[in-house]
Amino acid sequence: MRIGVTCYPTYGGSGIVATELGLELAARGHEIHFITYASPIRMGSGAERIHYHEVEVSSYPLFQYPPYCLALASRMADVAETQRLDLLHVHYAIPHSIAAMLAQQMMAGTRRIPFVTTLHGTDITLVGTDPSYFPITRFSIEKSDGVTSISDYLCARTHVVFGVERHIRVIRNFVNCRLYRPPAEPPKEPTLLHVSNFRPVKRIQDCIRILARVRKDVPARLLMAGDGPERSSAERLARDLGVCEHVRFLGKQDHVERLFPQAHILLMPSELESFGLAALEAMACGVVPIATNAGGVPELITNWEDGFLEAVGDVENQAQRVIEVLTNEKEHLRLSQAARLKAENHFDTLRVIPQYEAFYEEVLRS
């Protein structure tokens, strides 16, 4: 198939999933055309059957806000026609699904171009519920030729919040277990890791508090990968708690598959996660996830079997789980092996990507 993919080309989960999906589909023989305002961060260069089409947005004095949605729709229609695309797959509802619908209508006189919308989380739980975007978000879901969701939790929330009755196919996030794999030997120094975009919902200050508590029993260090609005407050908290020399803020990382094997434990103390992609990537590397029992995370982590789930904000219990893992080598090995096995058996690309291919075929036949 020839597939156009549109996403936010940033470090957020939706852009990462969209890019990885495109790369996996290309590896399986499909022709992928990324249509967005910048090259997706994990796209790399030189991959076969991968193409990038930049969306340029003109700025005129009349426009207080550049009309990206209109420029995107025009570019989608142009690429769909010149490259003979079979369908468009847009990630994150607003504004991508509306742009795809406009592109579809622009081409209605020449050929049919269906589009699939994948819901990722904050497009439903945060942005979509804003009164300014609620009606258009619901409209875009209803008008999509196919809709997928990354978790049962997000699917249910979409039905409840927006009152849509149409079918939403749940296709969970995935990981390439050949690329994300455990190291030959575990790291020698007790190491905790956090990976996110450092937004308030990620509660990154809790990571600092957990480290401070853990260090009363174990001489651990913490790697903080990512960047965002909460970084400065986390750095300040690390100084206040006297652990700043044991925390490394790494900034944004393009190759996290090299980073996960350096850690024993992943900290994911989020207020809400619709799935928890970072936890899945960690599990594939044999890194034990300690997360919060919120949103779609329980669909990924089975408490006490391949990781731990604690209440949001319960720093003490999260720290206790860290201490238990770091001070019990046998328990760490058990959890690490179970985490890897979960990733292989349920979330590997070999199991998930065919679900997308089958869904595309359904949409094309409809």
Give your account of this protein's structure.
The protein has 366 residues and is an alpha/beta fold. The chain folds into 2 domains: 2-174 and 348-365, Glycogen Phosphorylase B (Rossmann fold, 3-Layer(aba) Sandwich); 191-347, Glycogen Phosphorylase B (Rossmann fold, 3-Layer(aba) Sandwich), CATH 3.40.50. It contains 12 helices and 13 strands. A 7-stranded parallel beta sheet has the order 3-2-1-4-5-6-7, with helices on both faces. Helix 2 packs across helix 3 and helix 7 (204-214) runs parallel beside helix 8. The longest helix is centred in the C-terminal third of the chain and has 19 residues, at 329-347. It is globular and about 70 Å long. The chain starts with a strand and ends with a helix. The model has no long low-confidence stretch (mean pLDDT 94).
The stretches of 5 or more residues where confidence is low (pLDDT under 50) are: none
CATH topology of the largest domain: Rossmann fold
Strand fraction equals 15-25%
Structural class: alpha/beta
Offer a few descriptive terms.
2 domains, Rossmann fold, seven-stranded parallel sheet, 16% strand, alpha/beta, 366 residues
Set out the fold topology.
Layout: E1 2-6, H1 13-27, E2 31-36, E3 50-54, H2 68-82, E4 87-91, H3 96-106, E5 115-119, H4 122-125, H5 134-143, E6 146-149, H6 152-162, E7 169-170, E8 191-195, H7 204-214, E9 221-225, H8 231-240, E10 247-251, E11 265-268, H9 277-284, E12 288-292, E13 308-310, H10 315-326, H11 329-347, H12 349-365
Parallel strand pairs: 1-2, 1-4, 2-3, 4-5, 5-6, 6-7, 8-9, 8-11, 9-10, 11-12, 12-13
